[in-house]
Amino acid sequence: MPERVPSMGAAAAATAAGAVNGIGPAAAWSQPDIVLLSGVFCGALVFLLRSREPSRLKKAVYFGVSLVGGYALTPHLGEAVPSLPLWLAAFVSSALLVAIAMVVLDWAEASVPQILSRLVERVLGGGGESGSEKK
After folding, report:
1. Which one of 20, 77, 91, 131 has the fewest CB atoms closer than 10 angstroms to its CB?
2. Nearest 5 degrees, angle CA 82-CA 84-CA 89?
């Protein structure tokens, strides 16, 4: 009797199901908490509505980061401040995560190129002197 080979679709489905079940928030929280999810969603939504970012793509990315990051950070905030209600901890962690990230990214965009330029000048010895001026 010939050996039966599973189809590629079945193998792909099994791999995808394993990845979904073994990675991400599902591994940490087997049952989604509606209170936590609603707090994270509200925090991300308020951030999205208050954002002055002109790009819709960036807004969508920030919204996604706020949702996922807020959901992941909320348990840690809850441990740090146990008197804080879960929905409020979720709201704060979601909105604060992207707000802080935007401040850091804005600083990096403004400062890192200047810092790198100064470093390159020091390493390469770009003091403004050319070889023809030296005697």
Report:
1. 131
2. 110
**Tokens describing residue 135:** 């005697």
| H helices, E strands: number in the chain | 5, 0
First-residue to last-residue Cα distance in the chain: 90
Confidence at 36, pLDDT banded by 50, 70, 90: confident
Total number of residues shown for the chain:
135
* pLDDT of 103: 87
Return the axis-axis angle of helices 86-124 and 56-80, rounded to nearest 10°.
120
d(CA 39, CA 90): 5
Averaged pLDDT, 54-68: 85
Q: Which pair of tokens denotes residue 98?
A: 């992207």
**Confidence band (pLDDT; 50, 70, 90) for 9?**
very low
